[in-house]
Specification:
CATH architecture of the largest domain in chain B: Orthogonal Bundle
Strand content of chain B: under 5%
Largest sheet of chain B: none
Structural class of chain B: mainly alpha
Order of helices and strands of chain A: EHEEEHEEHHHEHEHEEHHH
Oligomer: heterodimer
Number of strands of chain B: 0
Bound molecules: adenosine-5'-triphosphate, magnesium ion
CATH architecture of the largest domain in chain A: 3-Layer(aba) Sandwich
Shape of chain A: elongated
CATH class of the largest domain in chain A: Alpha Beta
Strand order of the largest sheet of chain A: 6-7-8-4-9-10
Order of helices and strands of chain B: HHHHHHHHHHHH
Radius of gyration of chain B: 23 Å
Strand content of chain A: 15-25%
Number of strands of chain A: 10
Number of domains of chain A: 2
Number of domains of chain B: 2
Helix content of chain B: over 70%
Helix content of chain A: 25-40%
Shape of chain B: flat
Structural class of chain A: alpha/beta
Largest interface: A-B, 34 and 35 residues
Number of helices of chain A: 10
Largest sheet of chain A: 6 strands, mixed
CATH topology of the largest domain in chain A: Rossmann fold
CATH class of the largest domain in chain B: Mainly Alpha
CATH superfamily of the largest domain in chain A: P-loop containing nucleotide triphosphate hydrolases
Number of helices of chain B: 12
Chain lengths: 324, 283
């Protein structure tokens, strides 16, 4: 027996999510439309075939297909608004898809850009929320210890720093021992140093628990450092993928990673950000050209002037000032 | 009574506006002085009142002397008369409020959690809300007779709206992201209500509860005029028949003390139930 549930959704008539009109009713009603039909044969963590998700007329996901193996770390890149979050929400089970097939393991957990903690529950109670196992508190404390927050277990969420709150969210995901961990830009709101620590933490936790991971990020380097495979989304599909199975720990200066970085940036339609030296050189060249043009114009003007008035010496100093 | 109607938000706002510690201390000392002078003026008035009574300028028929009022108060407490009537009144309020809290919460959940519920529940309640509920006394007497039922029903009717309205808007303004988080954590609908929706709407509920408590005292005064044989309102009515202005004033004092007490009660509940709020955590 495989531990996967299969979800077949072919209902264009499913409730269309509409954030403008509240929301709550739907958020509560629209709860996971996941019927527990027999398991899919294949031992994949995620199988998506021809997934379509439309908001009104607009298809945000348009025939998307995707496989993720158990224990695989996959990063998902794509321009803003290309539907990454939409895909993730479908995988979490918050939103139903319009058509297509989507199968995912029954135990999933998600961490979003904001920690989404219940402010009225202490950290460990947030972690324990919805866990249906004996000795929940013990499990929650253990998970918090794993993310290095053992001593903040009884803190109110409002007293946690951004990074701490995000780690509580991570503990809350891990305590469920998910077969699929969905991360939607979980580090985007953190400072650079905290982000580096979080990268290490997430790798450690992933290697300890080996869930399949789908990480949505805008940071190409983050994807290169963490993932086994990098997907680029465009036009509602997975437009490209790059294998990135190198050994860890990785360093971004690795020429192989640099090469992949260039490829990814090209795929994303971003020109590679020039180095600072190149930037200075380029700006310098532009300035030079500008100065030359100014100088030329001034010479012309002076030549014109000279025909009308007496030549004066200061024109020379002016020229020097401009050139400097 | 007006105090019990003030929002708990005020406290948070005042805190935010607090300037540096030094200035606060000076302000406190100043307000201490102001407090003294504030007590002084009523004290002088009381003395004048007492004097006027003793000199016979203020007949007892109009109003009893402060000393007489204090004496009556002590006597009524001592004989157990006042506590027993107070208990009857408190029991009425407790019953009426329990009903209104229960129905108000149920209605707010129905209206707040489903589109259909909103259509069915919200518009009729919004219409009923505009009724001056004390004008319903004759109707309630016709429906429920002159026993306990109309009294409790009227208190419940008057207090259900603040509970409903505030809780409903509280539920509606809960961050949808938190509900989604709850769903993605695998919470059932009931767990979602218990762990996410109700706690998230608790601050609004407590605002509603405060309004309701204020209204409940108000309705008590009106309700206990209906053929009561016990309760503070009954005490006032019979005191009027015997022209006992001292008892009337004692009852008025008790009303305002009870109002203050319930206000304090809600504040205490707030401090414990909302300990997680940033505004409480900072203080
Ligand atoms: N409930 C909704 N109703 C209508 N349109 C929506 C809804 N949710 C998302 N969209 C639209 O779907 C598109 C994809 O949104 P999505 O949030 O998936 O983008 P994204 O790839 O996560 O972008 P970002 O990188 O900026 O987070 C956007 O154009 C968005 O406006
Ligand atoms: Mg997104």
């Amino acid at each position: 027996m495989t531990p996967f549930e299969r979800v077949d959704l072919n209902k264009a008539d499913l409730e269309q999510a509409d954030p403008s009109n509240a929301d709550l009713a739907r958020a509560v009603h629209g709860k996971a439309d996941l019927n527990k039909t027999p398991p899919a044969g294949k031992a994949l963590a995620v199988t998506a075939r021809n997934v379509v998700k439309a908001f009104g007329e607009r298809k945000v996901l348009d025939g998307l297909s995707l496989d993720i193996a158990p224990g695989e770390f996959v990063a998902l890149l794509g321009r803003s608004g290309c539907g990454k979050t939409t895909l993730l929400r479908a995988l979490v089970g918050i939103d139903a898809i319009t058509s297509g097939t989507l199968s995912m393991p029954p135990v999933r957990a998600a961490v979003f850009q904001e920690p989404r903690l219940m402010l009225w529950k202490r950290a460990w109670r947030n972690v324990a929320l919805g866990v249906r196992k004996p000795d929940v508190q013990q499990l929650a404390l253990k998970a918090l210890a794993e993310v290095g927050l053992a001593e903040r277990a009884h803190a109110w969420p409002a007293t946690l720093s951004g990074g701490e709150a995000q780690r509580v969210a991570l503990a809350r995901a891990l305590v469920r021992e998910p077969q699929l961990l969905l991360l939607d830009e979980p580090f985007a709101a953190l400072d650079a140093l905290t982000r580096i620590r979080m990268h290490q933490l997430i790798l450690t936790l992933w290697q300890a628990h080996l869930p399949a991971v789908l990480l949505v990020t805008h940071d190409v380097d983050e994807a290169l450092l963490l993932a086994d495979r990098i997907l680029v989304m465009a036009d509602g599909k997975v437009a490209a993928e790059i294998s990135n199975a190198g050994a860890r720990p990785r360093h971004i200066d690795d020429p192989q990673l640099q090469e992949k970085r260039r490829q990814l940036l090209a795929l994303l339609g971003v020109e590679e950000k020039p180095t600072y030296a190149a930037y200075v050189a380029q700006q310098g060249a532009q300035l030079d050209a500008l100065h030359a043009a100014q100088l030329e114009a001034r010479r012309d003007a002076e030549a014109q002037l000279q025909t009308e008035t007496q030549p004066e010496n200061h024109s020379e100093t002016q020229r020097i000032r401009v050139a400097a | 009574m007006s105090k019990s109607l003030s929002l708990p938000l005020d406290a948070g706002v005042a805190e935010k506006a607090t300037p540096k510690a030094g200035r606060v201390r000076i302000a406190q000392r100043l307000s201490g002085l102001a407090g003294l002078s504030r007590i002084a003026s009523p004290l002088v008035l009381l003395l004048l009142w007492e004097l006027a009574s003793r000199l016979g300028w203020l007949p007892t028929r109009i109003i009893a002397a402060p000393s007489a009022i204090v004496g009556t108060f002590a006597e009524m407490v001592w004989s157990g008369e006042l506590p027993s009537h107070m208990l009857v009144s408190l029991a009425r309020i407790a019953k009426g409020l329990s009903i209104s809290i229960f129905t108000g919460t149920a209605l707010a959940l129905i209206a707040g959690l489903s589109r259909r519920g909103e259509i069915i529940v919200d518009s009729p309640l919004q219409m009923l809300r505009t009724l001056p509920f004390l004008a319903l006394v004759p109707l309630f007497i016709l429906w429920f007779g002159i026993g306990e039922t109309p009294k409790i029903a009227l208190i419940a009717f008057g207090t259900v709206f603040p509970i409903y309205l505030n809780l409903y808007s509280g539920i509606r303004s809960i961050d949808v992201k938190l509900i989604e988080a709850g769903i993605s954590l695998g919470l059932t609908r009931a767990e979602l209500i218990v762990h996410v929706i109700l706690p998230g709407a608790l601050p609004s509920f407590l605002v509603g509860l405060r309004y309701s408590l204020g209204i409940s005292w108000l309705s008590l005064v009106a309700v206990e005029q209906i053929n009561a044989t016990a309760g503070l309102g009954y005490l006032v009515n019979s005191a009027r028949d015997f022209m006992r202005t001292d008892i009337i004033v004692v009852c008025l004092l008790v009303y305002s003390l009870l109002g203050l007490f319930t206000d304090f009660l809600v504040r205490t509940i707030e401090r414990h139930a909302l300990a997680w709020r940033p505004s409480f955590l900072r203080s």
